[in-house]
Amino acid sequence: MKKKKDPIPDIKTLNRILRPESVAVIGASNRKDTLGNLIFRSIIRNGYKGKVYPVSATSGTVMSVKAVKSIIDIDGTIDLAIIVVPATSVLKVARECGKKDVKGLVVISDGFKELGPEGAEMEIALRETAINYGMRILGPNCMGFINTDPDISLNASFCMALPDRGRMAFFSQSGALCVSLLKYSKNFNAGFSSILSAGNRSDIGPSDLLRYWENDDSTKVILLYLESFDNPEEFYRVAKRVSLKKPILALKGGITEAGAKAAFSHTGAMATDRAITDALFHRAGILRVESVQELFHSAMLLSGQPVPKGKRIAIITNGGGPGTIAADEAEAQGLNIEPFSKGLVERLNKKTLRPINIHNPLDLTAGTPDTEFVACARILIESPENDAVILIYVPPAGEGVSHIEAVIERLEPEAKKRGKSIIASFVGDTGLKGKRVNNDTFVPYFPFPEDAIKALANAVRYSDMISREQGVIPEFKNIDTEAGKRLINPFTVDTSNKPQWIPSDILNSLFTCYGILCAETLFANSPEETARATHKIGTPVAIKLVSSTITHKSEVGGVILDVKTEEDAIIAFNAIRGNLEKKCLSVEMRGVIVQRMITHGIELFMGVKNDKSAGHVIMFGAGGIYTELINDTVTRLLPLTDIDAEEMIGETRVKRMLTGYRGMPLMDINAIKELLLRISQMVKDIPEIIEMDINPVKVLPEGKGCLVLDARMLVE
Amino acid sequence: MKKKKDPIPDIKTLNRILRPESVAVIGASNRKDTLGNLIFRSIIRNGYKGKVYPVSATSGTVMSVKAVKSIIDIDGTIDLAIIVVPATSVLKVARECGKKDVKGLVVISDGFKELGPEGAEMEIALRETAINYGMRILGPNCMGFINTDPDISLNASFCMALPDRGRMAFFSQSGALCVSLLKYSKNFNAGFSSILSAGNRSDIGPSDLLRYWENDDSTKVILLYLESFDNPEEFYRVAKRVSLKKPILALKGGITEAGAKAAFSHTGAMATDRAITDALFHRAGILRVESVQELFHSAMLLSGQPVPKGKRIAIITNGGGPGTIAADEAEAQGLNIEPFSKGLVERLNKKTLRPINIHNPLDLTAGTPDTEFVACARILIESPENDAVILIYVPPAGEGVSHIEAVIERLEPEAKKRGKSIIASFVGDTGLKGKRVNNDTFVPYFPFPEDAIKALANAVRYSDMISREQGVIPEFKNIDTEAGKRLINPFTVDTSNKPQWIPSDILNSLFTCYGILCAETLFANSPEETARATHKIGTPVAIKLVSSTITHKSEVGGVILDVKTEEDAIIAFNAIRGNLEKKCLSVEMRGVIVQRMITHGIELFMGVKNDKSAGHVIMFGAGGIYTELINDTVTRLLPLTDIDAEEMIGETRVKRMLTGYRGMPLMDINAIKELLLRISQMVKDIPEIIEMDINPVKVLPEGKGCLVLDARMLVE
């Protein structure tokens, strides 16, 4: 493999980094608080099972271990080199590693791409060197990694502590977040299989790790912190596959490396980014979370408890307030707090000694004896009426927790047998870690019920996701791909030109090739032609500006609707011309189109965009002036399956208007679905599309189809 | 005061409960884990500065203290009695307290209103007894209270621990939440002045406590957990006044005492409740929070740091990820992360030893020495370019925190001098409590930056709130109140009838009395009359069903728009009649109205509702079929001030359509404002209005006013 880059390197090469038999720390130091000192100490202190060698240009020994000046001087093979020297020396050192036949580099040193063009050049050189010698790189500018496997026990990072061994794996674009989550995890009975910070990701990125963890039996749940997507297509393809085997949860940080400030001075960009990320995660089967704590809490739950079979939850508590808050949050998160059946109420009633109101959430009140709480919890866990049980307990005098904990331990096998999650919250108590039952199972405790519910809701989302139908990309027979391509070709071959808008007549023809219906339209370039076109189409008509530069026609007074006579058509043409003259835009007017007025139906919007990070995405939502206003747009990656199209429609608010809203007729939802899929096919055939807006497209009552009223397309 | 109830009891009477010189625990017990034991122990253990007497029917001594059988037997005066006997004995005991001239009762015992009618009766009797003897009651069914004042040091609750002394005061409708927050607070350097759980609130409720804390110097911030509003009008009047002096933060639990299950089986009810609560809190100047942690965190910040002067924040961090996440959250919360000025960048540049990108958030990266972090933090705190500084620090090796803490302590006076908040997050670290600087000031630490930002955003909301103009309720000259009342009188005097819908012709006249313009309308009851009315008004017209039972006209095919000829008007009348016949609703048709078609303008919605818990509220948002669909409605309590009306318009999304959206003309926003205020006046004059929908009302371009197209009103 040397001297040649494998396009997708064998994932086993990562073993040389994550499971090395020998490690050299290049830049190891005796000077306290330097990274070179911290890392060498981390490895020694945390009981690495292999051999570690300090390499130091200045010290003969590091932490009482004999050091060498160069890795070359080490007697024996080295699997992994951890590099902590200044950026300017990294390349030289990396070459020495190559010569020593090292298989993996962890480059902690910063001062590369993150600092600008000069650093980026150094990073490229580093990468080339590594490829030449067949070395994989983690970093540069990273925290390193930790592998808790007792056979390895390697903390190759500047985070001194080793996390507890557990079944969460964490990949982070921020080393600081690795340190933070590791620290936070110590409050819980949940640990990690491995933690990696990949810094600038010159080589190893999230896709590699997903593939590594896919078949890593010690990993049950994957956590990601991402700020950007390097190779989205590969990423979501791999993630899609892996996510069906184990849950992947991700927190997306908003700043792009390129433009930290820009991202925050421009809300619009943020919003778009949000929709695109949602689309990407949706396609990849990744569960998006909104905070660091939600990331950890949700993964913790999934690493210790089974994936719930449904969203029916039962809440049992000795405190009304926390029970109410849990129920509020459950409803907000889309979980179901279903009323107890009569039989269940009777069974519970037999166990409650004092008179209380029995309903879900079950509030046994502050005076409840532990025995009663436990008996009722058991009944709920054994009941087939729920998929998960949440125990919320407020120890009246800071005592009594141990009884409840003992019970949780006894009840857990019952829950497991039924494939149910059980979760506990000892409200306000951050000192309890969760009840470990065996190697694979523990009952997580959450200091607050809101956190417990959020985590459970994510587990339910995962359950929904893996049971979701995958759908198919249908093939439409009446599509003339070749004719369509021929129409667009002239605008894409001339690469010297900037992106070009497709004239509306050609766009109409293109739509025809794809079996997409447009409202009947004629072009006119004078008042007289406009009148003739109006006569031909039949009144009423809409008259709209044609221009290759002005794309928001209504904003310049370029749209006149509901023109009822040929005389009015002439007036309309002149009015549009006049409006442009007033704005000194006359030269931009190529003419007008005269279009049949479609007065009934509902206006919808469909859009396509070639996003720099996610590729082609499609948007769907309410149309006309409401598109931006009501912010009711669903975004998905292209191509779409039939299920995707159906889901997109279902996720909008405008859906209600299509399904017999307030006495309105049922609209042709199948036609909308088909239109989305036809557009999907078109974009697949013509990847040169940068941007397309179909707005409005009118959906007509059931069986009557959809009609495009206005569209624009930009290609390059 | 004996034997007579003071309508608003002197707030000083609460001192007899919160600051008693002597306390009797009635139901004190030696039996471990009983509430009677816990409470007596709490008082003794936590060093109450007054005298406490155990009263026990069965034990001669309680915890080595001689007990008496009845409070009557105590030799000396008793200010406060804490009652822990079974519900059935409470009344008898309370009477004895009255005879003993006790001034306050804390009734811990449950088994009252919360269990149904029988318990409710007992509760009323208890209340009457207390009024007869001039006693105030906290409870029944409550946890009791805690006063941390070192002169009192009274823990009269079954929560064993005493919280740290601090400047937060907490009133909760859930005792469990008191226990939980108290426990959680121990993780922080923030304490409470007093904590009360009021249980069933038979006497003392949140309004009393607000009035008590209003002038309590040891209370700086007020926390509320509420599930229902007992007397909303008094509550918001008091809260309004108090909130201008000290921040009030509230978490609202969703379940009403009456219908726990109903609230959760009916999403609609929840949603409405949410809007009404928002309106109530807005009027009361209360900051609504969304979780228990947000409640505590935000109050903690406000109890230790000044109210920020604005929303410009600077973030300094040694970890890129946490900085990014903080910036994301800040943007989501509406805070401004403003770019550093050139001068500021230069000043920071001089302090950073290694090359880094200097922008806000300022990421000094993991390798930054403490001295550099500190120097940069100082520059940010001294800069006039921000209103708050957030320090986010990830100790690279779990060390170094003490340096940063020392610096925080030194920098705090600088920040205070400038009226700035400083906040720190040692990410993932739940073990650090926050830096106390002096009695009044501490710098709070948050385990995660998201929490820090949320708390700060609430502090900024408070700052905005107190600086908000109060506005005035304008008086309109051209309103004929008397004529209006005369019109509605016939529908409200006959109380034997159910609520009645006001016929549209009378409603039109009422609007005229209030200077509210309606589209020109004529009533017709036959095809011929319809044609004549159409002729009179001039085409095009809208023809709409008149019925006193059918209020959603379009759903029964009762609305035909854009009728262009008299012949078409006849067809329209017959069509509406036909539609009703098909639905067997012919008898419900009283006729039609013929109305001038207003084809331009934007459709808006205004609604009024007499809410059982909040009184009259007004809703405003997008109109027509979009009202429900886009969920873009703002709700406020009536009456409105001019500022309220302005804010309501400003908070909707439809606002964008009114202010020159996509080439559309500016709409007459002043007319909308005036219409809202006229409606407000109308509801004030006619409080019998139960419900009113004005939908749609059309706003026309600037200077052209608003026109009501359709309305309905229910009175009783």
Q: What fraction of residues of chain A sit in β-strands? A: 15-25%
Spans of chain A with pLDDT under 50 lasting ≥5 residues? Answer: 1-6, 255-271
What name goes with the CATH superfamily of the domain at 11-299 in chain A?
Answer: Succinyl-CoA synthetase domains
Largest sheet of chain A: 7 strands, mixed
Look at the structure and give the mean pLDDT of chain A: 89
Overall strand count of chain A: 31
Tell me what the CATH architecture of the domain at 11-299 in chain A is. Answer: 3-Layer(aba) Sandwich
The CATH class designation of the domain at 11-299 in chain A is Alpha Beta
Strand arrangement, major sheet of chain A:
9-8-11-10-12-13-14
Helix/strand structural class of chain A: alpha/beta
Shape of chain A: flat
Largest interface: A-B, 99 and 99 residues
Oligomer: homodimer
CATH topology value of the domain at 11-299 in chain A: Rossmann fold
Q: Count of helical segments of chain A?
A: 23
Give a structural overview.
2 copies of one chain form a homodimer. The first copy, chain A, is α/β, with parallel strands linked by helices. Among the domains of chain A are: 11-299, Succinyl-CoA synthetase domains (Rossmann fold); 306-467, Rossmann fold, CATH 3.40.50.261. Chain A has 23 helices and 31 strands. In chain A, the strands form 7 sheets. Chain A has a 7-stranded mixed β-sheet with strand order 9-8-11-10-12-13-14, sandwiched between helices. In chain A, a hairpin with a 6-residue loop joins strand 8 and strand 9 (154-157). In chain A, helix 13 (370-382) packs parallel to helix 14 (401-417) and helix 21 crosses helix 23. Chains A and B meet through helix 5, helix 8, helix 11 and helix 20 of A and helix 5, helix 8, helix 11 and helix 20 of B.
